[in-house]
Predict the 3D structure of the following.
Amino acid sequence: MRISELAATSGVPAATIKYYLRENLLPAGEHTSPTQASYGEVHVRRLRVIRALIESGVSIAETRKLLAALDDPSEKPSDLIGQAHAAVTPRVDEDLDLGAAEQVVARLGWQPGACDDAVLAGVAQALVGLDRAGFEVPAEVMAAYVDAMQRIARAEIAGIPTDSAEAAVRYVVLGSVLVEPLLLALRRVAEQVASTERFGPKSVG
Amino acid sequence: MRISELAATSGVPAATIKYYLRENLLPAGEHTSPTQASYGEVHVRRLRVIRALIESGVSIAETRKLLAALDDPSEKPSDLIGQAHAAVTPRVDEDLDLGAAEQVVARLGWQPGACDDAVLAGVAQALVGLDRAGFEVPAEVMAAYVDAMQRIARAEIAGIPTDSAEAAVRYVVLGSVLVEPLLLALRRVAEQVASTERFGPKSVG
């Protein structure tokens, strides 16, 4: 199909598609004449993934890295998870004290070297943010956070398909990034349901 | 203290403090002369909360609403949770189909009216995002997400202090918003640990 049809099929404006082509996020179409190229189903699928990543707040440069990982199914799952996390982990102060974070994640079976420093630093940074706001997470609640995330991670990692490298890569890269809004949304629903259980229904208004 | 001292103590530049004063995020200081005002510990604490909310991606307008809730301890916890969620829940398409989201949250004990529509729509929007990217969450993994969020929410709601309305408000508003980065960071660590358990350590490099 032509670029105008690709735009209509994918719902992504032609100008945006051209931008993705220039940025090498989308592979070039097959040239049917010196000034025209033809696009196929692979472009439609790839556009959906690009939109999903960008709408999740992933930058163009990071999207390019994740797509490269999607295109290289030779990567090990553990390495891929690291790459996906690196793309979405905000950069943090280098001289962050990791001690408190290490103590929190020790409950996960974490030990030195068990995860990327940047990911551990993400926990440290989040703890600093809470501390600065003067907010202390009660010990039982922190324990519930850690246990819940361990259950989630184990279910996710157990679910990594091993029959096809491509499927594994797709699952890991998209699953680690795109699921974040779902988890936060589910938590909000769960909090409102649990609050109604404890305090009764909300006032009408 | 003067505004310059408040800036030094809080680490927030004086120009930013003046902006927060103009935006009514921060209460005015006590006037000591027609051109000078004096600030106290209450301003330092409030500045920390403002910074924490804004660094979590909450807008100025939403921060103002959350601070108003913090200042009105007469609110019921269930109402406050709704306000905090409303401030951080991204606006979603109005004509979103909520059916799939309702099915997912039914496992939480959710029933019609048990949470704000906007919060339920957040789940629906997240599901649409995954679907568009062609990513299907396996049923066992989805069940793990829902169960984990239910455990988290119950621990959080059980931890709401009831001895002081002010403490309750603080816990609810800050806890529901500021804890999000911590949860996502913990999930990343847990995923890397679980991945190493299943697939062995990452490649060095």
